[in-house]
Amino acid sequence: MGALTRERDVREAYSAHSGELFGFAVRSLGDAGLAEEAVQETFLRAWKAGDRFDPQIGSLRTWLFAILRNVVIDLGRARAARPRVAEGGVEPAVEPLEQALLAWQVEEAMRRIGEDHRRVLLETHFRARPYAEVAAELGVPEGTIKSRVYYGLRALRVALEEMGYED
Amino acid sequence: MRTEDHRDWRLSLGAYALGDLPADERAAVSAHLEGCAECRAELRSLEGVAALMALADPDRIEAPAASPPADLGARIEAQIAAEASRERREKRRRRLRLGAGGAVAAALVAAVLAIAILPGGGSGGGGESSPAQQVHFTSVPNGVSISATLEPHAFGTEIQMYVSGIRSGTLCRVFLRDARGRTFPAGSFRYRWGGDSEAVLSSALDLSQAAEIGVHAGAQTFTAPIGQATALVGGAGTGSA
User: Fold this and answer.
1) Domain spanning B3-62: which CATH class is it, in words?
2) Alpha-carbon torsion angle A125, A126, A131, A137, nearest 10
3) pLDDT digits over B84-140, tens only?
4) Closest chain B residue to A151, measured at CA
5) What is the pLDDT of residues A68-105, one digit of tens each?
């Protein structure tokens, strides 16, 4: 696909990437309504700047994410400019956007790997449970847990690479 | 070293990269890594990903993935279509202001003009998107001018009608017909003197399928063929009283 100037191109781009874009928008804005707004604005900007998209330079996905990132920054600014509802309320810590994008990609990659691998990585690494305990719970030898961690990490790397991750 | 041993070491590298090995096992793997370039390379390829894991939130991983509302795509398409037709109208107004006189004269000679103008797009001209078309109605009474610009869209065809010279207040009902003579209504408008003589309408018929456009204007019906870019001099439209 070349430039993104035709309305049909936009429709194809939407069906291919809207799920991911929306997922990240929800993750970084913390609000489904704002995320909808962000995705809508992203595709509108993409269409308006469609003749500047060059598939030789980067993938459509990367380009759309770059636009979304700007939209999220703009929305964040607009939200920050609004008067606070509650005086003295605690503002949630704002995660830097680049980091939010990476975090979301890791979470998304974790969702994409096989259930066996995901389960073992979640229990042993994120929840820091001993391998023996997880092995007993799943009814498999401890060595299997270790190999699932290894293959799970490799699968995670592949899933991240599919999303454009490079070392 | 035996192959199985090597395989065992390799399988430990995931836990090693994540820092999840007990101290004694970790020391053993470290010792093996000293002497095994292959395992060192494998470890390097896992370390970047392992470090990224610290960013992720396990509860978010297990939460069902958020998906956009079903109608968001349609809303975006509608917004883009509206934006596109607004831009086209502005372009057209500028063109009309520049050369109104010449355009009328040209319209009398060429019955059907097909103009391939889409903002910024279709420059490849591969014919995969049908271009916008401009249609002039020729068989109309003296003093009456009807033309239309047809734009292809995902939903069908957008039609901008430009009418002048008919009685103010006349109800105009627009339709498209395909090659098999099936009629697809495109809505209606009332012509007003002094007001904006253009109306933006839409029809579900795909522009590539449209063979004819017509207007019921009061008791009269005017039609003009759509399609081939060849100019038909005279007799292109069929007016019937």
Assistant:
1) mainly alpha
2) -150
3) 888 888 877 777 665 555 554 454 444 333 333 334 333 333 333 457 788 888 877
4) B14
5) 999 998 887 777 665 544 444 444 445 577 788 888 89
Pick the CATH number of A95-167 from 3.40.47.10, 3.40.50.720, 1.10.10.10, 1.20.1250.20: 1.10.10.10
Identify the residue among B45, B80, B86, B207 best suited for mutation to test binding to A, counting A beta carbons within 10 A and taking the highest: B80
Assess B76–A contact: CB distance below 8 Å, yes or no: yes
Torsion of CA A141, A145, A148, A149, to 10 degrees: -160
C-beta neighbour count of B91 within 10 angstroms: 12
- Whether residue A153 and residue B153 make contact (CB cut-off 8 A), yes or no, is no
Give B60's contacts in chain A (Cβ within 8 Å): 27, 107
CA B120 to chain centre: 12
Q: In what order do the strands lie in the sheet with B171-178?
A: B183-190, B171-178, B210-217, B220-225, B238-240
Best mutation target among B47, B49, B67, B208 (most A Cβ atoms within 10 Å) is B49
Give the CATH number of domain B88-240: 2.60.40
Instruction: Please name the residues between 33 and 72 in chain A that touch chain B, using a CB distance below 8 Å.
Output: 35-36, 39-40, 43-44, 47-48, 50-51
Residues of B in contact with A167 (CB under 8 A): 45, 48
A69 alpha carbon, distance to own chain's centre:
11
Contact B186, B175 (CB under 8 A): yes
> Does ipTM exceed 0.90?
no
Beta carbons of B172 and B206 less than 8 angstroms apart:
no
